[in-house]
Amino acid sequence: MTELLNRTDRDVLRAADLLRAGALVAFGTETVYGVGADALNAQAVAAIFAAKGRPHFNPLICHYESEEAAFAHVEAPEMARRLADTFWPGPLTMVLPRRVTCPVALLAGAGLETLAVRVPAHPVAMRLCRAFGRPIAAPSANRSGGVSPTSVAHVLAGLEGRIAAVIESGPCRVGVESTVVDLSGPEPFLLRPGGVNLEALEAAIGPVRRGITPGRAEASRTLRSPGLLVSHYAPALPLRMAAKDVRADEGLLAFGPPLPGAGAVFQLSESGNLNEAAARLFEGLHWLDAAAGLAGIAAMPVPETGLGLAINDRLARAAAPRG
Fold first, then answer.
1. Residue 32 above 80 pLDDT?
2. Which domains does the chain have, with CATH numbers?
3. Is pTM, for the whole model, over 0.85?
C-alpha cells in the first residue's frame, strides 16, 4: 500500500526519511506531481524506471533546494546563471554538462555527459528538497507515456502500490511540465516548451533555437531531455487536435465557447486564458478519459503563443500514434 502523507512538517520529514532509505515518494510541484528518489542512489533511481515502466534512455530531472546546490553538480555558464536568477525557483529545467565531481547516479541522466536540473517553486517540493538535503530525481508520477498527474488521485490511479508514499500537496499552479532548455552547447536550444514561455526566455537571454524533434530524439535513443518521446502524455482514448466539430461519441476539450454536440465537455478556459487552460489541461484529459460512453477526445484549437506552445506540444504527443 502507498502511504498518504499530509503537508505537515512531520510528514515532510517522514518523506525525507523514506527517500534516504531508497524508497520512492510522490509530491506536488508547481507543474505536476513528481515521483522522487535519491538522485545519488543508483538503485533508487532504477526503481523509478521500474515503477513507471519508463525507458532507461529517457533521462530524469534532478530537483534541488537552491541554485547553488544545483550548480555544484553541473557546469553553469553565465547564461545559465542569468536564467536561474530570473526563473528559479520555478518551472524551468536546464540541461548542463555534469561536473567531473558530480555524484548524481549516471542512470538519472541516462548515462549522458549532461544533467537536467531545476529548483521547484511549490512550497511542498521546496520543503522536501530542504529536508532531504540532496537532489531528488523526479519525473512525473504516472505510468510512462500516460497523462501527467495534477492530484493525488491521479498519482494513485497509476502508481498505487508501486511507490512508498505520496504527499497531498494541493494544486499544481502551472499544470504543465517545466520548460527544458539545453545550454550544454554554444547556443541555447528549447527542448520542451512548458511553464516558462519562449518569449520570457528570449527576453532574458536572447534568441533560443528549437531543439531536436521528438522523432529524431527517440530514434537516436540518446534523449537529452525528459518529455521528448513522440507518444507521451497520452490518454487511453484517441485524441484529435484543432477540432472544428465534435461527434456525439467524443469528449470535447474546450477552449473558449464549446462546440455543440459533444458527448461530454471539459472546459479548459471559457475566456480563452492560456494560464488557466495550462493549469487544467491534464485534469481535463484524465476526466474525459474516464467518462462513460466515449470513443475519443476532440481538442479545440489553442493559440501557439505563450503557454499555448506548451499546451499544443502536450496535445500533439497525446494525439501521436502509439508504438
1. yes
2. 3-220 (3.90.870.10), 239-319 (3.40.50)
3. yes
